[in-house]
Amino acid sequence: MVPARTSTARLNKLAVAAIIFAAIAASGFWVFGVAVLAVFAVGPGHVALNQISLRGERGRGLAFAALAVGYGIATLALINTLGFIASAVQQISL
């Protein structure tokens, strides 16, 4: 049974941590090279969603936003890596 949601429910701390990691990863994607922190946004984001559903806490939107940013950066990194590999293969074949 899921606890009732009230306006006095606590904010899930992992959801806050996940969105902080996501914000740092997004701001540092091009400038600082800290996009690897997106991995640290995805893990706590999933755990936070689980805890929120079990405990009736707040922060579901924060957790979803952190997951969207984390997976978005991971997708961009994958596309970038595949482009780099294609470019390297093309250079080798020349």
UniProtKB/TrEMBL annotation:
UniProt keyword annotations, A-Z: Membrane, Transmembrane, Transmembrane helix
Superkingdom of this protein's organism: Bacteria
Transmembrane feature ranges: 14-42, 62-89
Protein name according to UniProt: DUF4190 domain-containing protein
Species, as recorded: Arthrobacter humicola
